[in-house]
């Protein structure tokens, strides 16, 4: 059963995993699910995924001071499946995300506005945007990347798995330093910090992982996202996996979960020092 809708946006209330008491709250991870899933489903699946270490440990127990926020997308009509499903935005083709790309703008625009509100709420709780890590898997990564590139936030880090960058061709064709606007409703300027000298995002570490055998989102789309982020000045830690469940379109266990733990622990230490 889905949680009650957010009073302002209509999005379901995010699923929250609080820091283990009495551990202090040191950082927050906002992690977005893929198409057809929910925040609660993603949290449950992550909690049951294998990590290296004690057999009774999971990713949450190994990050006891972390507050996890799992938002859920609105139900939307899927053009390709001809039915309503939870998805951050409508998309016609995963093999070629640029096909009928006009279908993506309404959902992405709404998602960015909702996630900006959510981010502001979490930053107000923890008092420091550098203690917030944004991430997602599959369509969740794609949505989070749009927020990363258009939101102007200085996060503590970004994590993405099995995803892609929407409107990648338009971003690639735009000279660095020029203002770029995703078409129609999604009209936030892209942060081209590499050439403009802005500090927004440039020092932010980024972890991107993708399965070489991903049957749903091609490996080339993941490596394209890596290349675009690097060209924009981000420091990308790129990870390749093979043999994950769901035909390669999931976190490789335990390697990907171990990579997340390492990345977050490093960022926690840095944010506490800063």
UniProtKB/TrEMBL annotation:
One of its GO terms (molecular function) is carboxylic ester hydrolase activity. Pfam families: Abhydrolase_2. GO terms for cellular component: cytoplasm. Residues 23-183 form the Phospholipase/carboxylesterase/thioesterase domain. PANTHER family: LYSOPHOSPHOLIPASE-RELATED, PHOSPHOLIPASE_CARBOXYLESTERASE_THIOESTERASE DOMAIN-CONTAINING PROTEIN. Belongs to the AB hydrolase superfamily. AB hydrolase 2 family. This is Phospholipase/carboxylesterase/thioesterase domain-containing protein. It comes from Orbilia javanica.
